[in-house]
Amino acid sequence: MTAPRIGVIGGGQLARMMQPAAINLGIHLRVLAQSPTDSAAQVIPDTVLGAHDDLAALKAFAAECDIVTFDHEHVPTEYLVELQEMGVQVRPGPHALQYAQDKLDMRAKLSQAGIPCPEWAEITSDADLDRFSAIVGYPLVLKTARGGYDGKGVWVVDDRDEALRVIKEIVASNTRVLAEELVPFTRELAAQVARSPQGQCVAYPVVQSLQTNGICHEVISPAPNLSDERATSAQEIAIKIAAALDVTGMLAVELFDTGERIVVNELAMRPHNSGHWSMDGAVTSQFENHLRAIADWPLGSPAAKAPLSIMVNLLGGDLGDLHLAFRHVMARDPQIKVHLYGKDVRPGRKIGHVNLIGSNIDDLKERAWHAANYLTGVIDE
Questions:
Q1: In sequence order, what are the beta bridge partners of 154?
Q2: Domain containing 177 — which CATH number?
Q3: Is residue 98 part of a domain?
Q4: Which of 145, 254, 304, 319 could form a disulfide with 176 if both were Cys (CB 3.0 to 4.6 A apart)?
Q5: Which residues constitute the domain of residue 177?
Q6: Angle at CA of residue 329, ends 324 and 335, nearest 5°
Q7: Are 9 and 58 in contact (CB under 8 A)?
């Protein structure tokens, strides 16, 4: 068996973190990046410069690959069909990826498949808004159907006038408008699965995530105080979605937990922030299983190495050079694992994360947050 040449479209940190797994598996990884300073371009020697929405660049890049996968979901679907027509395996395929690209398409498909979702509607007129608000009331949530991430493209509106202003803004950006009920969730969960073209599927422990300004900041695996029955239900939802959409590779299903029900918030068909804990806390990381899945190799065990894992994202702050803080963090806690993305520091930007495994949640949270806060300059002792 010859290892496939795998191309990753997008040069962000997800592509960067695929490289160690690719090296261990003997896979030649190449990346299509916009700049030689992109996160992945710094560590993957076979880097091609080009834009993800430039068809000629995509074709030239894919011509040297056996399989193409993604660091993000923003490649135009019609371009991916053209890559398939060239004989390149696109995984996940455009038939699946469209549901991660367009939230309205996703809501319609999941509702059709019987997957629990918030109440939702497409808004094309003032009358649509009035009908929907009469059902769910205010406040309600408005989203751009395409292009939003990390809290961008999402608004909570308190009344009709505010809703109409936001809808006008969304329409001006040339995308459709999705309205949803404001789910009274008590916490956010995520269920991740890896699925191969043959349908083999493995499920990771369900995790709890904490957001700061719409950006994932902390992940605990497994989710504390989640019964086995509810955890299994969340995993079954993710497995059902992966099969219904014919996903190949990693699928992350972001969930709202209301205490009484679990409903789907968002989908990502790639490695995901909620799975970074698996780099140090699982038998097989999400990055390795993504590569194994798209190569159609048997999947690795997603089992946890320890009773608990915690990941805390490093969000850019006042400290420009994170390495200045390494000596203190490493000396204070040799078990901390630091993963940096090679990015310039900007306020609120994801520039890395720390992982820690153990058995006492309070101890893990104190240690992981101390390391993250020291690395980003929030504290200095």
A1: 143
A2: 3.30.1490.20
A3: no
A4: 145
A5: 119-181
A6: 140
A7: yes
Q: What is the dihedral angle through the alpha carbons of 358, 359, 365, 369, rounded to the nearest 10 degrees?
A: -10
Q: What is the pLDDT of residues 313-326, one digit of tens each?
A: 999 877 667 888 89
Does residue 102 lie within any of the structural domains?
no
Say if CB 265 and CB 214 are below 8 A apart.
no
Same domain, 35 and 145: no
Identify the residue whose tokens are 């995901």: 272
The pLDDT, as a whole number, for residue 151 is 63
Q: Which amino acid is at 320?
A: G
- Side chain identity, residue 156: V
188: helix, strand or coil: strand
CB 351 within 8 A of CB 334: no
- Token reading at 297: 């190799």
Give, in order, the Cα–Cα distances in Å from 165 to each of 126, 139, 157, 159, 160.
11, 14, 10, 10, 9
Question: Tens digits of per-residue pLDDT, 152-209?
Answer: 789 999 999 999 999 999 999 889 999 999 999 999 999 999 999 999 999 999 999 9
Please name the residues in contact with 204: beta carbons below 8 A apart, sequence gap of 6 or more. 191, 192, 193, 194, 221, 275, 278, 282, 286, 302
Asked whether residue 269 falls in the same domain as residue 355, the answer is yes
Number of domains in the chain: 3
SS3 280: helix
CA distances from 356 to 118, 286, 312, 351 (A): 34, 16, 9, 17
